[in-house]
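Q: I have 655 residues here and want to know how they pack in 3D. Can you give me a structure?
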Amino acid sequence: MGRSRIGTLATRALTAVVLLAALATLPTGAAGAGSLAASASAAQALGDVIPAPVSVQAAATPYTLAADATIASDDPGVGAYLAGLLRPATGYALPLRAGGTGSVSLLLSGADPGVGDQGYQLDVVTSGVTIRARSAAGLFNGVQTLRQLLPPQVESTSVQPGPWTVPGGRIVDHPRFPYRGTMLDVSRHFHPVATVKRHIDRIALYKINHLHLHLSDDQGWRIVVDSWPRLATYGGSTQVGGGPGGYYTKAQYQEIVAYAAQRHITIVPEIDLPGHTNAALASYAELNCNGVAPPLYTGTSVGFSSLCATKEVTYTFVADVLRELAELTPGPYLHIGGDEADATPAPQYATFMNRVQPMVAARGKAVVGWHQIAASAVQHSPGRVAQYWGTTTSDSLVAGAVARGAKVIMSPANKAYLDMKYTSSTPLGQTWAGLIEVRTAYDWNPGSHLNGVPASAVLGVEAPLWTETLSTEDHLEFMAFPRLPAIAELGWSPWSTHDWTAFRARLGAQAPRWAVMGIGFYRSPQVSWATTPPQGRHEAENAVISRGVVESNHAGYSGTGFVNYDNVTGGYVEFTVTAAAAGPATIRLRYANGTTANRRMNVAGTMVDFPGTGAWTTWQTRTLTLPLAAGANVVRATATTANGGPNLDYLEVAP
């Protein structure tokens, strides 16, 4: 094995993109080449989050959350959220106080002025973590980055051994676009409140700040409207395939809105008009031009239904629905659909939209609609937002709407639709917009995707999740992950950070976190997925390293890499091992030594020989017994020869 510093650094430069785990930084005492390795390791660790941060400055100042840690927050809601996130897995009390400083401080002052209204500044030093922002939303976004910098086990609902170490340095971060969303279609298949809440928790991790709820369609009406009660009780009684359907009471809808708001997510409700309305037409005959209510519909065809645009009762109906929905929704948007209104003649469509848009404005809301509302005869309403779902990169009507002041949410169906199959063999989803593997979802630029729509006119991005084929929460998870984090990064990160190779490495590192969270995701072959180490295993690449580098250029290692010691004495890898009780413990160290006859190591005061393994891809295990104290123990494996130490894969505490 070539172990010269030049060769090692060249190898590291080639392989850094596949270092997936959050690596602990090196001691400040490391000098020369060791300091260079420390900086590279720390930078990789501190930036290993999704979405990619704007600016990362690594430092050799890791912080480990201790049992007596405290949280101080200028915003009680974000502080309580963080404490609630950390307490179950750590088992720590983490007392929360308003204002001041703590082991983790959340401050609404002192942030870099470039963070804006949604950004944050995160500083990690050995004495603690400080997140600064100009708003509670910014603090919350900073908390999501801190969350990803902690070990995946922090997502557990039961006490885990830790340690809870965060790599040192500074992140200054802010979003590219203000609107970053996903859409959940609860009309084709109804999904209960608990499922929506879990979806909210999962999208919050990736700094999604809008959830668009598709509340009405041909197959079901999902929100109570007091002035038109049969919409829910009859129109909501079925779904695709003829299942029982369901609907949200006003109290349940408000519960969803409040739960989302606590996570700084805005609910965008959609009532699709004038098409996609069979559930409403079946509920009230007078909404049909012929006065005859059609039967409830449980199929998946589109474009066949329409409210009667020539009847005055239709506009009374729409006004009532929008009024009641606006009263329940504190967010700034009401989505009025407008797509696939094939059964509505074009002149009537324009008349309908020109009467309905002012109803939205009268309720103090901005109009959002699918991009068909940009039709030439439809008047432009102030603050209007067109959501583009087309599969081409040119749409003259959308470009014209932008020229008149409209903003655009980018949701191209062949890039951002989460209900499209990954491959032809995907058991769920559809194919009409094409197959969307992870790279397809990631490799497009929302700021330049559509001709005539400059980045300045793009409000943001949204990943719709239609549910014609998705009837369970497991189905939603499988189709959203891992593509939703890809769309989230397009909405947040500057285009200068866009790099598929780097992204798929960071994406692969999310797998252990999703496993702890119970997310059943699609394991795309385009991504090398990290695995969750067995209980008691401590990967060397996640430990504190002095005079060594993390590499992945020899097959057969566990985790995401191994530590290659420098060819000097004194280099070490330091593990923090937690023991439930004091006493002797069996420790196993997995290593590869090639044809080197022996490298002797001092392991926590015990001298251990590491013979040759014959090849760098042949891994063997050395076993020893060490006395451990109850609680946290530092176990350091130090090289004692000029040849340094072996390639070290992990330390494992035998059960």
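Q: Anything worth noting?
A: Residues 1-44 have pLDDT under 50 and may be disordered. The first strand starts at residue 55 and ends at 58.
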